[in-house]
């Protein structure tokens, strides 16, 4: 296995004090001088440092192909080899390779991930609220969050762009962007096939074939199947006893066609279909409030808690036949025309539909109708983007200008059970987004470059809400029109509220980078990102109908990217130190309804700042051995947050799912066998996550209401995850490769989400846990 495109950041050795982290940063601020004192020349002229690290890593963070080490942006690039070796098959796995990236689950919904970069995270994944981190496949955003983890196969690489991407990416990327680059077809007939088996009955296959139909027209067909992996068992008495959960049945296919319409015009079409059926993720009951008027009055609830405390977390109780299914299809068409030697036109058009079906049991017990949720939802979105990319002033200025249009329409129907009753909630969203952008990079001198860009954004959002109780009572309330602040309930035959608003914001970027030597770059950058406002899909009262305003992130980042030698050891050090000013933060907080059922309101929680340090250190003593160490320090804090109802100061509320320390260390080793018998390889990745608050609906006020015994349940203590992989590529000189893997080798138990309403509407806490130890084997054939 070659070493090119190894991950440029990896995750989690923490246990470093804040003082140590700052000392490390201040020491390396003068990295140019430090690296200059070391040698960037190859020892004894054996090889260049670029050759020691393998092929040049090409990224598209600025919408053109550039070397990773020359771009003044903090980026993690993960190669196809690492994706395969460590079985990175959905977005959850990706966080083990980048300490600044985190994923949390929506209780029992593995297909509705909530993801964050550098502590910038939405409260939840829900229609009407844009994500803070956008996922792009072939330069097109995947929306909504439900189903955004379906494209993780047959990829050239994954690029994780850190910080606001407010100029060249238009879908509210205030935290960052994740770019998935699918493999393009080759010019000769070839391919590879994989079959794998694993623990808990896992069986998987993957196929990718390049079919050149003509010298100017090539097609690649790729697909995968995944069956099994059910690591949980429903132990409830009755018909559902023995039902397995946690696994999946996935069917995916992607067809990529590239045609040269003329010597100067190329058209690329990507068509895809994904169907992922899961039986959800069972949750575990971990606390019941004896003083709660509802939960505390049900003796059977305490019996369920006692049973949960005396069995493995892989044994769960659910009175529902759980499911979390998602089906999506889409098409992307990109036309690129070389209008002149220094001018290119690119047009990208895309359409995608996503349908989801969800049933899950939030109370994690055999009791019927305590707290359940069902959902049927569909969303379609289309986008059009035009770009002109050029070079001017004798090659000193690289520039891009363009326009972008995005439209999405979706519906969601969500009946939820609450202590014997059923709340029927539905919503329809109709959103549009328009933007125009321009960015240029000017080489003031051969070593010094200035980059500036601006984007003008306008978002138009509409939503229709409906909410009934047991189908006989409309729960929506509106102003009674008397001017006294009184409310009136809408009639059942007219139970809907229409909401509409628009939001706009200019965004942009400016950076200065200096190439101290051919192998050492330093840069200073500042960016402004914007996340559109919107409406609360769960609203039932006028205070909840009010639109929440946009939130913005302005950052200042100093960074260095350096390749250098210490003796015969090749080093690659990428360091980023940044400060983010986070304003008008959108936060979802829990509120009570007239029925006492769980509800929420989205508010703009004043402001916060985030100070962070990210270090990506690669050490390559030989061409066969690589050690990748990555560390992230995050120190977010609210500067101001006043509760408008109580007047209380909420600024001590913690940032959820944002550990202060995280990191990882990845070791890879390859050894060619004599006589052309193939190559043996070994890989290990140890990922660390520091202590983390895991409920996004709590404020400092609601945390203060929890008994001391409950506070540890609102957190996940620090933990390590250890993964291994071993393989034999080109077995005995053949076209077969064999890989063995083990994930979470120490069988660490850790929480990824759950319901925390101990003093709230429901009076209990349940937890969703990450996967236990899994292992398997994959056999690949190249042809």
* Rg, Cα atoms, Å: 26 Å
The fraction of residues in strands falls at: over 45%
Helix content: under 10%
- The first-to-last residue Cα distance is 17 Å
Give me the CATH superfamily. Answer: TonB-dependent receptor, beta-barrel domain
Low-pLDDT windows of residues: 1-34
- Give the total of beta strands: 44
CATH architecture label name: Beta Barrel
Write the topology of this structure.
Blueprint: H1 18-28, H2 31-37, H3 49-52, E1 58-59, E2 66-67, E3 75-79, H4 80-85, H5 91-94, E4 101-106, E5 109-117, E6 133-137, E7 140-141, E8 155-162, E9 176-182, E10 190-198, E11 202-214, E12 217-228, E13 232-234, E14 244-245, E15 248-262, E16 265-278, E17 284-288, H6 299-308, E18 315-316, E19 323-340, E20 343-361, E21 372-392, E22 397-418, E23 421-443, E24 448-469, E25 473-474, E26 477-479, E27 487-489, E28 497-517, E29 520-531, H7 542-545, E30 551-566, E31 569-583, E32 586-592, E33 598-604, E34 607-620, E35 625-640, E36 661-672, E37 679-689, E38 692-693, H8 700-704, E39 715-716, E40 719-729, E41 736-743, E42 751-757, E43 764-769, E44 774-782
Parallel strand pairs: 6-9, 13-18
Antiparallel strand pairs: 1-2, 3-8, 4-5, 6-7, 8-9, 10-11, 10-44, 11-12, 12-15, 13-14, 15-16, 16-19, 17-43, 19-20, 20-21, 21-22, 22-23, 23-24, 24-25, 24-28, 26-27, 28-29, 29-30, 30-31, 31-34, 32-33, 34-35, 35-36, 36-37, 37-40, 38-39, 40-41, 41-44, 42-43
